[in-house]
Write a structure and sequence with these properties.
Length: about 300
């Protein structure tokens, strides 16, 4: 009878030569990439649920194969460190835990940290782990400026302003790609300009392609920062590709545009970390957004490990 039983969750596809990303999981000492989840979404004022994103994105990430026709086979090792133990509803405690965990992960000079959020406020806590020890160049994809000034309460759209008020321009230099029209009050554009944030709007990309975004990456690289970091808020993508986010974009970027910029930026900036935020499986359609996020994560890890164009 034992010969007719298999482990729960075993795929129905019986191709024994097939190799999945899960086969590249390994111990910390031999890993090239540290993967970590931050299941926090209590700062969301829109559609919550991104606390469930790390586990959902992992499911699709580990089901992908390791082979890409152009990039070749993925030979790097991934150490999945698990999820930060957030304190539900307690941002003060949780943000400090995120910062402490990330400081330890960033201490490994031979490894890149890939982070699965969580709402976008986690990026502020993560970046504090780098900003406390050096100058940081940030590239982030977002339909919004994330520089709001609230009268009360919390929001995932305030973290960048808070970082500038705490650390200042020069300690943090930022390039923002994908800002959407009719989605931000004008004072946020003025704040971004005041702090020297280089902004590439969706309209810039629609009119001139990704060239301006690539030039902005070049500007960031030439700033000579101590560390570089890339953050991808999935709401910068068109809702046809990413319906399961906190704030869907009725007209947004395409995944191909994002991939092209990501490949260029990862090879140019050699980031210490890359995060993916704002995916809410609870409001997703057939896990479209989680699947897309898993694919972007996989491409990014492949770029980190040297795949693709030189």
């Amino acid at each position: 009878m034992d010969d007719l039983l298999i482990q729960p969750g075993t795929p129905f596809l019986r191709d024994f030569n097939d190799r999945r990303v899960s086969s590249r999981l390994g111990p910390l000492e031999k890993s090239n990439i540290i993967l970590a989840g931050v299941p926090w979404d209590w700062n969301i004022t829109g559609r919550p649920g991104s606390r469930f994103s790390p586990q959902t994105v992992r499911k699709y990430l580990y089901s992908l194969t390791t082979f890409h026709p152009t990039l070749g086979d993925f030979h790097c090792w991934i150490h999945d460190a698990g999820d930060v133990r957030v304190a539900p509803g307690d941002w003060s405690t949780s943000s400090e835990r995120i910062k402490v965990v990330m400081r330890k992960m960033f201490a490994y000079n031979d490894k890149t940290v890939v982070i699965l959020g969580g709402d976008h406020s986690i990026t502020g806590a993560v970046l504090r782990a780098l900003l406390d020890s050096g100058r940081v160049g940030l590239l982030f994809f977002d339909a919004h400026y994330d520089m709001r000034r609230l009268g009360e309460g919390y929001s995932s759209g305030t973290w960048l302003r808070e970082l500038y008020e705490e650390y200042g321009r020069g300690r943090l230099n930022t390039a923002l790609v994908g800002v959407l029209e009719y989605s931000n009050p004008p004072y946020l554009s003025e704040l971004a300009m005041k702090h020297g944030v280089k902004v590439v709007t969706l309209d810039d990309i629609l009119r001139g392609g990704i060239e301006q975004a690539l030039k902005t990456v070049d500007w960031l690289a030439n700033e000579g920062m101590d560390y570089y970091y890339i953050s991808v808020d999935m709401d910068h993508l068109d809702q046809a590709y990413a319906p399961g986010v906190n704030a869907p974009s009725s007209i947004g970027m395409t995944p191909r545009e994002t991939l092209a910029i990501l490949e260029y930026a990862i090879k140019k900036l050699h980031p210490k970390g890359v995060d993916f935020t704002e995916v809410s499986p609870l409001v997703d359609l057939n896990d479209i957004t989680s699947r897309l996020t898993a694919s972007l994560v996989m491409h990014s890890m492949h770029y980190i490990c040297g795949g693709g164009k030189g």
